[in-house]
Amino acid sequence: MKTNKAYINCFDSICCAGQSSEELFTTICEKKETITLNNHYVKDNIVAIGQINTQVPFEGLLVNTCQNVLENSNLKDFSNTLLVIGSSVGGMAQTEKIFFQDKSYKNIDYKHHPIDAIAHKLKKYFKFYDDISFSTACTSSANALGYAKEVINKGIYENVLVVGVDSLSYTTVCGFHALSVLSSKPCTPFEKNREGMNVSEGIAVLLVQNKKSKHSVEICGVGYSSDAHHMTQPHPQGLGAKQAMENAINDAQVDKNLIGYINAHGTGTMANDTSELNAIEALFIQNKPYVSSTKSFTGHTLGAAGAIEAIIACLAIAKNIIPPSKDIVNIENENVAYSNEPISKELNYVLSNSFAFGGNNTSLLFGRCNEN
């Protein structure tokens, strides 16, 4: 039975690090400051967050980003396109706005609150064939991309639009504050003296198709695992993370020594970073790929992170540039190859990690497409 390949052919994004994907990658490579201090979300506390600097309402940004991707695609209409949403916040910010404004829940429309409310609005606007939504915390849009690959591989769809989207909300910022994992300054993943993570907002849209175009990047492999070690903390040795990466490599049938770069989950929390470094060290013993966390620029966009970092992986392959981490002074694990500055290197395969609460782990392996 012939298996179709899944190609990322068009994409765009918006987050605190850039109003477009190209601006995002430039911001990372130039190591610009993107995270801002905020005393609005957590009472009597200053936390660092990643907020999009625009006057356009978030819903308008979402529609505009989808529009940009679809206008640059080879599609004339979207009646045969599946929409796949990955989000952990859904319409929570809109619900909060009404509740704080009215001091009451009575005017809240419950239909606008859940994750699939995003899909229903976009489907109605663009007239997609069908939609499905994933909400698996910080792996949401990574799992959406994995699902897109699966349905294209099996020939169920030829075109899948994947949207990773999460806006800032009191519930998420205060929730992570309650877990004592927020940083009062821009996060520094993999720095030994790191303080915590930065909650952020972002949108990433990728068109995945069964035919490649001039600038395609292939989704070569997807790996899932569930270590179920703890409700909010990963296994300290990174057993689930290692298994997810191995599964992605095995799915792609690629020699792991050909992987040139890992875009790590790297949130900046003590538990997550140690676990992920242990997993990478255990898996890559000979040829060590470079590792960085671009969350030091984007912050943690939660359900949108997998899709945003997929775009970063695609651009890294296209430009043959390994994006850097920021502000690593004291290295925690010297058995891992970090990229503290942008590195020019031919990249054929890039691994992108997304890990979530409950030991829900997803790794995506992206590959360069041959010219023929």
From TrEMBL:
One Pfam short name = Ketoacyl-synt_C
What would be an example GO MF term here? 3-oxoacyl-[acyl-carrier-protein] synthase activity
Which keywords fit this entry according to its UniProt record?
Transferase
The family database entries (InterPro entries) matched by this protein are listed as: Beta-ketoacyl_synthase, Ketoacyl_synth_C, Ketoacyl_synth_N, PKS_Beta-ketoAc_synthase_dom, Thiolase-like
Signal peptide positions (record): none
Q: Which GO terms describe its cellular component?
A: cytosol
Query: From which domain of life does this come?
Result: Bacteria
GO BP annotations of the record are:
fatty acid biosynthetic process
According to the entry, every stretch annotated as the Ketosynthase family 3 (KS3) domain falls at 1-368
Q: Could you say which protein family the record assigns here?
A: Belongs to the thiolase-like superfamily. Beta-ketoacyl-ACP synthases family.
Give the protein's recorded name.
Beta-ketoacyl synthase
